[in-house]
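Protein in question reproduced for absentees:

***
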Amino acid sequence: VIDVAITNEYLVFIVDNIRPQIFVYDISNIYAPKLVNQFANLDSLPLDNIHVVDNVLLAASGNKLFSGYVLGDNIQTRIFSDAVRDVSYDDEGAYILYGSRLDYFSVADLDNIHSSYQHFIIDPTEVLVSGQRLLIRSNTELELINSFNFKSGLTSPLIGITSIDHQQAILNGELLVLRP
């Protein structure tokens, strides 16, 4: 198993069977999961980092974002021209982290950037999403932004930035835990 996504309705696996394949299970009856879809991935797309938003599958690998309907049979690919550092998701879309900016793509319109933010982190490695908080981090810096302000563009989303050495960060709402 490469990756797993779970919602109230679906359990989705990416499994490496010669090439990455997607298996979608209906778990509305958790005691009797039922296979409802399978993407054979005949093009051998490098599927990883899967998430489900409503009835849309999102997966990412390198500079590519893949999307398709949970019960559909087609996967679309969006290729980004800049080097992608990380991809994270919320219940409405995908956050794409680059060396100098963060872009947000709404599931309703994955062909266009919904909002963009020029961050201050040097050599970022990860974007964490939890509620209305986004954390952009490297191993020596943290930048916390308000996701609502970022997506709406009404006011500056920046909450704060600091320098601190750490190896791992976990964000859960207002709680931030760092491992030295």
